[in-house]
Task: inverse folding
């Protein structure tokens, strides 16, 4: 499986990459939404995109809207991974096409729970 990590924090990208690689994902990275769209053009549709909300150039909501506007990515699952906890923001992201929402800070277990909900991990998987 393949995953795109879109976050302006290099540290967060490293943490997410470690979890995903442990689960067997091939990962790609981008520092903001516009770069994320460029990476999609380069690598094709991934199984999963993990998207931060607050980023320069293009924020996570705008990225989700842009991805969902393209049929080529209709099967890509979009997981917002963000500090945004306001229910209006959560609703806006889900309405725009995000499949799930994970609040920062998160645990490896909570990430695995979300991946299981999305059909990308199995219950009890550890991601060593």
Result:
């Amino acid at each position: 499986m393949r995953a795109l990590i879109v976050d302006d924090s290099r540290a967060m990208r490293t943490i997410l990459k470690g979890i995903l690689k442990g689960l067997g994902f091939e990962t790609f990275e981008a520092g903001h939404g516009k770069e994320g769209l460029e990476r999609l053009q380069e690598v094709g549709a991934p199984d999963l995109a993990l998207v931060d909300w607050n980023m320069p150039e293009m924020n996570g909501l705008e990225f989700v809207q842009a991805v969902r506007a393209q049929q080529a990515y209709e099967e890509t699952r979009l997981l917002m991974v963000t500090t945004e906890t306001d229910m209006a923001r959560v609703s806006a992201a889900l309405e725009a096409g995000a499949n799930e929402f994970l609040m920062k800070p998160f645990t490896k277990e909570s990430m695995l729970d979300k991946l299981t909900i999305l059909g990308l991990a199995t219950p009890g998987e550890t991601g060593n």
DSSP finds five helices and five strands in the chain.
